[in-house]
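Weekly sync, protein design subgroup
Attendees: M.S., D.O., the rotation student, P.L. (late)

Item 1: inverse folding check
M.S. brought a backbone from last month's batch and wanted to see whether the design step gives back something sensible before we order anything. D.O. pointed out we never logged the input encoding, so this time it goes straight into the notes. Structure tokens as presented (221 positions):
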């Protein structure tokens, strides 16, 4: 089995790790628009070239802003990439919560949430690949593993939030079962998505999603 080349990430000095988050600037309408342009440009470059190939010059050109403007808003390439990852995580979390809103029961909610998880990934394969790549990049960057852990905690909390609507939240045992359900749902769908990206077979993946839904409904719904 051939090893997969991953970008070399040198350990960051303490002063650098403190600058991984975007610089705090006075947020005028123009500032917000420019930052959004840069983040969108970074995502486009990541889709085309991956983490290693997405240089700040390429990102600035894609975003249509001067390189100096990029460095004004983001202290480093790392801080910009993490802003992209955070943005993707927020959009996914919001989509999950929105999709589950009309559910009439926990069983139906399980089905809708997992189908939404799958649909979002299946329709946005390139973005999903970028998200996994950025997660691994965060894990390989010294003192940035908090971001990888944080985004999964956000996903887990989003699932818990929608599933918890169908239980008595004062019942500690019921709350723990929802936590367990959310962990299994996230772990299961994540595995299906990764396999689909690595070895595409939509029918197999759709069947796996349906089997996962059925299993979780029987146990928790």
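Designed sequence read out in the meeting:
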């Amino acid at each position: 089995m051939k090893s997969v080349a991953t970008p070399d990430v040198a350990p960051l000095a303490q002063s650098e790790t403190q600058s991984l988050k975007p610089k705090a600037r006075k947020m005028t309408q123009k500032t917000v628009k420019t930052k959004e342009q840069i983040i969108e440009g970074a995502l486009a470059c990541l889709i085309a070239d991956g983490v290693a190939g997405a240089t700040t010059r390429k990102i600035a050109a894609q975003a249509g802003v001067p390189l100096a403007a990029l460095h004004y808003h983001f202290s480093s390439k790392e801080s910009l990439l993490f802003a992209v990852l955070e943005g993707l995580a927020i959009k996914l979390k919001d989509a999950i919560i929105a999709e589950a809103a009309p559910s009439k029961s926990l069983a139906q909610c399980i089905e809708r949430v997992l189908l939404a998880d799958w649909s979002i990934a299946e329709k946005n394969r390139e973005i999903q690949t970028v998200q996994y790549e950025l997660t691994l990049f965060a894990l390989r960057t010294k003192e940035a593993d908090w971001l990888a852990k944080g985004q999964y905690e956000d996903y887990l909390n989003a699932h818990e939030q929608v599933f918890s609507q169908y239980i008595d939240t004062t019942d500690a045992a019921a709350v723990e079962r929802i936590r367990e359900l959310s962990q299994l749902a996230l772990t299961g769908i994540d595995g299906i998505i990764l396999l689909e990206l690595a070895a595409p077979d939509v029918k197999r993946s759709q069947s796996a999603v349906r089997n996962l839904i059925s299993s979780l409904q029987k146990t928790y719904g």
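Discussion: The chain has two domains: 19-75, 86-221. The first helix runs from residue 14 to 17.
Action: P.L. to compare against the previous round before Friday.
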